[in-house]
Amino acid sequence: MRADFSPTVLKGFLRARVDIAAYGAAFPDPPRKGADFTKARREALAEIRKRAGVTEVQLDLAWHGRALSLEARGKIWLHGLGIDPAAYGVRLLEGGKQERLR
């Protein structure tokens, strides 16, 4: 199996991480009144953006699976999501591309 760090996969990881964090915040165990999934989702996305150190525009491009700069994509993968492409033998390239290291 070959690791894939394309813009489409980044989009999927972002959406999954945001939804998991939002469900955990909006519907804790035990349940609490006033849970707001939409607010929790916005907060989770803002937290990823803050950790990654990217702009709202850059994160929005990634959220929609569009190509963005190599630097921004790398920051989102590594700092925002905590996934290092190099650990999977992949180097990110411009234009949403990648190459195998091994």
Task: Describe what is shown at a glance.
The protein is mainly alpha-helical and 102 residues long. The protein has helices spanning 7-26, 37-52, 56-63, 70-80, and strands spanning 90-92, 98-100.
Q: What separation lies between the terminal Cα atoms?
A: 13 Å
Number of domains: 1
Helix content: 40-55%
Estimated structural class: mainly alpha
Mean pLDDT level: 93
The main sheet comes to: 2 strands, antiparallel
Multimerization state: single chain
Poorly predicted sequence stretches spanning 5 or more consecutive residues: none
Share of β-strand residues: 5-15%
Outline the structure in words.
The protein has helices spanning 7-26, 37-52, 56-63, 70-80; strands at residues 90-92, 98-100. The longest helix is centred in the first third of the chain and has 20 residues, at 7-26. The chain starts with 6 loop residues before the first helix and ends with a strand. The mean pLDDT is 93. It has 4 helices and 2 strands. The protein has one domain. Helix 1 (7-26) crosses helix 2 and helix 2 (37-52) packs across helix 4. The chain has 102 residues and is mostly helical.
What is this structure's SSE topology?
Blueprint (H helix, E strand, L loop, with lengths): L6 H20 L10 H16 L3 H8 L6 H11 L9 E3 L5 E3 L2
Helix pairs in contact: 1-2, 2-4
Properties at a glance:
102 residues; mainly alpha; two-stranded antiparallel sheet; 54% helix
